[in-house]
Amino acid sequence: MSMATEEERATKAREAGDREAARLWRAWRTVHEMVQDRGYQLSEEEVKISLKDFRYQYSGPDGSIDRNKMKFSADPSEIMVKRYTNLPTTAQPVPPPPDVGRIWVEFLPGDNVGIKQMRNFAQFLSQNSHHTGILITNVSITPAAMKIIPAVANETRIECFMEQDLLVNITHHELVPKHVLLSKEERGKLLERYRLKDTQLPRIQLSDPIARYLGLRRGQVVKIIRKSETAGRYASYRLCV
Amino acid sequence: MAAPKSILKKTSYPATTSRSKDERDREVALYHANLLQERKDIELKILLNTETLIDYPLASKPYDASNPSPVDARSFKKLVQPFQPSDYDSLIVERNINEHCGYSLCPNDRVKDGAAGKYRLIGKTGKAKNFKVVEKGELEKWCSSACAKRALYVRVQLSQVPAWERDITYGMEIDLLDESKSGEDPTVERHEKMDSFTPDDPGKKNATDLALERGDKGVGAKKGLVDVDIKEKDVQRPAQAPSFETEDISERLESLHLQLEGHTTVFGSKRQRRHHEELEGIDEDGYCSDTDWKLD
Ligand SMILES: [Zn+2]
Predict the structure, then answer these.
(1) Which residues form the RTR1-type domain (chain B) (predicted)?
(2) Domain residues of chain A, as ranges?
(3) B38/A190 Cα distance (integer angstroms)
(4) Residues, beta carbon < 5 Å, ion ligand 1
(5) Looking at the domain covering A169-241, what would its CATH class be?
(6) Does the predicted model carry a pTM greater than 0.80?
(7) Min Cα–Cα distance to chain B from A36, Å
(8) What is the per-residue burial (b if ≥16 Cβ within 10 Å, else e) of B42-77?
(9) Which of B39, B90, B100 is the mutation pick for testing A, counting most A CBs within 10 A?
(10) CA B254 to CA B257: how far, in whole Å?
């Protein structure tokens, strides 16, 4: 009798461990896809890792996934650099260099994320000259800790996601149209062609899930490509605000 | 079209009429930009102060929460001064994340009750009126109920008004529950405070007062839109001593002996009296009946 319950308990624990591993694997896959979709360089092997390989590489001695191991960096591709390249203007014949660089992604273990954890993350990014950092947590971050992000914005860009937000890749959903970030050059041409001011475009909020996925910044323009049964494919544009 | 006739004497504001609209627009824009910047600066200061206070107290034994080091006590009061109660609650959360007792001057760890269950019964042995059901999470913010009481004592003194909208003359002075034991003459500090609120020139003080009356009361309004030039009123007739003859003093007879040059002194500031009233809600266990901490 007690042997059976002992076994049951072990089975339950193993199942819970499996679920947790699968959950973290899905978040790991999504964040890799996200980084790749933004234009950073990642190999297909890194992005399309199997659950088995994931468990093999990221488990601790007790067999459960160790979030401390879940971190990676990536560099922007040439295409991405080009997208962020500033155009010369009459006021600035030599434009400032593109505002992109290495990205660092880290899963943070622990039940609490406050000011200290955020400050440590910011310091790590600055010390290693990481241009951007993505912090992924299992719990929500305190409002006070979130205020660190604008306070260090001139040193490094910090973005935060929760594991549960990354369990599915929202851009893979059939009802979500494709969003493509326009380069500065494309943006200029678009506005010129339609004789528009950027503020005349419809808007997408910085906090919109797709804007967060693509890491959009205020003032950038995305092209949204929809498929329509009657009209085929058509594009619309939105200004990130 | 003639401009509407001003109710103000023209001579009072010669500058306004001679300035162009553009100039005034620019000034108004600048004024609002300054206010916004002031607010941002204060918000950043609150964040940095919170960060500093996570690791308080700095002094070690023999100092503790009931007997804080005077240096720590003084800087704690200063750091917490721009806080609203919500900022103070955030500080407690941040200290708890790092396992510290929620009261900034306490060097202990918070208690952590490993047992399951959301509620705890306290005061089981004493009188029936002390018996309470308390949420476990509330108890786990502190090392003891004494610290909960100390922290609440500070919290009720914090202004609900954001620091950037507070009166410049608001004499914020935080008292600690254990003040008398801290071994420092509190009057010394009080004098310093009073000095700091004495404006260097009376014109500035008057301008400040007028700005306050107009509602430009934040610290951001130091360089407010009112430009005041106070002029001494010329009195032609000879000065006369005030007399009782024309006044009915029967109503004031009772307190007349307390007056000094027509002013009746009241002991304790308005604020202190208010805190007294608020603190009466706290019983021996340090749990206030009326806070959003759900201690009751
Ligand atoms: Zn304590």
Answers:
(1) 78-167
(2) 12-168, 169-241
(3) 39
(4) B 65, 101, 103, 106, 108, 143, 147
(5) alpha beta
(6) no
(7) 34
(8) bbeebbebbbebbebbebeeebbbeebbeebbebbb
(9) B90
(10) 7
